[in-house]
Structure formats: C-alpha cells, structure tokens
Amino acid sequence: MTTANAIRLRYALRRERFSLDVEAEIPDRGVTAVFGASGAGKTSLLRCIAGLERAEDAYLELDGTRLDDSASGLRLPAHRRAVAFVFQEPRLFNHLSVEANIRYGRQRRSDRSPAATFDELVEILGIEALLTRAPSGLSGGEAQRVAIARALMSAPRLVLMDEPLSALDAARRQEVLPFLERLHARLPVPLVYVSHQQDEVLRLADTLIALDSGRVFASGPLEALLARADVPGLSGAAAAAVLHGVAGSMDDEFGMTPVESRAGQLWVAGRHPNGTTLRLLVPARDVSVSLAPLSASSIQNSLAADIADVLPCSDDSAVLLKLDASGVVLFAHVTRRAVAQLDLRPGQTVFANVKSAAVRPVFAESPPGPA
Amino acid sequence: MTDLGPLLLSLRLAATTMLILLVIATPLAWWLAETRSRLKPAVQAIVALPIVLPPTVLGFYFLVFLNPNAFAGRLWFEATGSTLTFSFAGLVVASLFYSLPFAVQPLQSAFETIGRKEYEAARTLGASPLDAFMSVVAPLCRHGFLGAAVLSFAHTLGEFGVVLMVGGNIPGETRTVSIAIYDHVESLDYAAAHQLSAILLVAAFAILLGVFALNRRRAAAAS
Questions:
Q1: Does the domain at residues A7-227 carry the CATH identifier 3.30.1330.60?
Q2: Looking at the predicted structure, is the pLDDT value of residue A279 above 90?
Q3: Of A87, A93, A147, which is closest to B136 when you measure between CB atoms?
Q4: Which H or E run contains B8?
C-alpha cells in the first residue's frame, strides 16, 4: 500500500517497563487504530509522534515532510508539527471558556487552513450549548468532546487520540463514540487512534496496527487483519467481521433496514435512509451455522457461505469457523460439539445465520477516497 | 513625621526585590518543578538556605563578597562608580538572595500541582514553550504568583539582620523601617518605635488576611 502521501514512521524506545520497536506505513486518510494490550507502550508511541517524548531511534514522515529523523538529528518541536493530540483526560484550560479553548490552537496556526470550520466542528460534536460555559462545569463526556474539537480546530495534518474514551464510564463512552464516528465520516484529516478496546477498533478503524510485545504483529486494512483471525484480541471469541453495504428501502413499520452487501442482503435494526453507505459489524459470537436455510426461526439473515477454515479457540469447548460468503469473510464462534454433530469440514457449504439485533450498523461512511 | 523616610525606603526595597524576584524565581521554579536532573537537590538546598541560616551569616558573606575589594563588588564598582556595600543597590542584591525561597517555593508548588498536562496540550496545539507557559501555565498558577509576590514582598519588608550587616544605617539609602525601630529602641524612644511597629504589624496582618481570604474564595470556586 505504498502511496505518495503515506505516513511513514519508525520508533524504537526502551523504557524501564517496556520496550517498543515499531515500523509502519499508514495511509494519510481515515482512521488507523493502534491496537494492543495496555502497558505496551502505545501511549509513548503517540507521544513520540507528537514530539512530546524522545525515542532512541525515530523517523516520521508526513505529507512528504520529515518531522523526525534521528539519523540526521532532526526533531521538530511539538508546536511546529501540526500534530494534534487528544489525551486520555480532556486537559482543557480551566481559565478559558469552552469556546476560547476550541479557538486556542486556531489562533496559533492561522497559516494552515483547518479541515472544518468552527461551526461545523461544533455541530458535528454537538457542543453548541456548551460554548460559553467554563470547562470545570462539564461532564466527562462533554469535556472530551470539547477536547476533540479543540484538537481538530488547530488545523492539524495528523490527529492522535490516546484512548480518548478510557477515562469515561460505559454510558459516557457510548455517548461519545457516535460523535467520533460522525467525525470519521466527515473529516479529511488522518487520525491515529490508540485503543485496547475491540469495539472501538471495529467501529472506527480503517487501518490497523496490531502490537504484540512491543512489536508490530500485523498491520494493514482492518478487514484483512480481521480475516487473518490470529490478531490477539481480535480472534477466537473476540473475532468479528466488518461488512460494507448500502441501505435499501427501510421497513418503516418494524424499524429495520435491508443492507445490500457483497455477502448478500442483511436486515439490520434501525431506520437508515435509502442509499446510505453503512459499515456493519458482525461479531463471531452472534453468527451460527446450519446446513439448510432456517425457516421457522427468529433469525432474519441467512447467508450461503463456504467453510474456509476451522480454527481452534483458547476456550477448549469452542472453535472459530472462518466462512467465505461470496468472497466476504465471516466468522462463527460455535461449540466443538456442534461441529462434530453436523460434521462440519472445510469446503462445505453452509448457511451463516446472523441475528439482526446483533449486527451493528456503525456509521454512514464517506465514499472512500482515491485509492 | 520624621519616620516616613525609612518607611518609604522599606517599601521601595520590598517592591523592587519582589519584581526582580518574580522574574528570576519563575524560570527557576519551573525548572525545579520539571527537572529530573541530579542537580535538583543541590539547587533546592541552596534556594532554601536563607530560611535556616541566621541573617547575620548571610549578611557577613554579602559583606565579604560585595565589598569593592572582592570580585563581584569590584565589577559593580567599575560599572557604576558606587559600592554595593552600604548602598541601596547592595540591599536589593542581598534581599534577592534572602527572599528567594519565599518566591520560589509557592511557584514551584503551584507548577507541581498542575503538572505538565495542560502545558503539553498547549504545545500540541501550536504554542511555543514560552507561549504555552504565558498563556496556559501562568494563568492557571495565578495563586502561586500571588503567593510568591506577597511573601517575597512581606519577607523583604521585615528584613533586619542582613540589612544591618550589608547596609548599615544611612538615612535615605539603607535605613529601613526595621533598622529605624531598632534605633528608636536603642535610644529609648519607645513612642516612635511603637508607631513604626504598629504600622508594620497592621500592614503585615492586612496583607496576609487578603491572601488567605483570596485563597478561600479560590477553594470555594474550585469545589
């Protein structure tokens, strides 16, 4: 995936509690998730990219400009990088109003044109009502949305987010995630998103860098890495497939929408306007298989698929079936007992039954840019 | 009132010292709050010395190092044509050392309390180190600056031993309030001593009351 405008990075860090050696090339659009267990140095990696921390070996190239190159002693100071950072905590400036916080970076980077106007950002993040408030009076979710707006308003050429939802409780996370999805669909700025949460990665990432023990375990487009079914944290019971589709005409009475994907038609919960591009998350846990299409069942989606592989799981009683539905990879997390009873083998044609309620349509995706 | 001179001189000395100290102590306190250098304990110890040393000891060393025959004293003499010892300028130099910990410590503790978080956020938003400090750290540490200003001012105002050693008792040049009070007591002029002492007492109380009242308002606003 070598493109003229790719972001190239290489960092080697040795710290007391971990060492990190990462080399990757990521596209200059969309969301790249850096995924791995906590305490693996993901935060330090982002801090190096932002120029807040020093690495023993560092190389960073953005838009064809080098920001870091330890071989030639180049290390651009943080404020000259135009790399914005959203931290785990909001880090708002308490002596300034919400609006002044958001405009802080814009005033300092008037030479660059921002990806979105103030009004657009405020609208996307739903913070119109907060502008005149003091940051100390905001809830955790509100404060983090303001911090995101502040970062994006600084006209960055790259945005870094370090587990921006980790300080929030489950309800607040669900409150902020949709805003991140809306951003993803509407902003042309590349975003590097560090997380150890499977659902955040599945919902937001286009590209994935999976870290394991301080090294790159695998990197590439999200679908390709999910299809490998060996990425720690995204395999076994945590395996999932991501499908892309276009909404058909919704069934208004029952509040469901058919989505046409390459794997076939899937009914998903919710009303989505005809023609919207949607990303569908299909967790392996919510897919079952049968030898014939189910008729008398509550299951709404039954897709013909070939068994591509039978993969072991860490849980001894279960296996992961890798399915090929017209070229699209799906996973089913099923018991070994069921596999034996149905005599399931690679190459066999089965029906993948997907519970509509489990399929999560994530967001209206912007049409992918010129590849 | 004959004692207006020493009073005004003390105020001038305290104000001058305070202003210069804010300029010197701010980077020093920021460095102390941020650094992981092995020099930090040594620097901290030097800054804190005036708290524990008898003012006469400090004064004695100033006399030794600032007199026109010593290196520092000679440089000053050659540059300005006047001596550092037994002059207002010498009092300012001595007061800078004497009151340094009272400016550094409130600032350092304010910087340590807010940490680097907001500073780093400002840096990633395009602010240079100085800009980030002035536009984010300083306003967030207002109370630290206020504390440093008040304490260094008040501490300089009450200085006696160092002044006596370095400055002597020259009216209009080095005769500060505390020296004047000492003089009055020596000459058994208790009425004049009372007058000056009462002024200092009330002024000190008023300043501290103001600071603590502000602190209480700040704490209430923060909670």
A1: no
A2: no
A3: A93
A4: helix B4-34
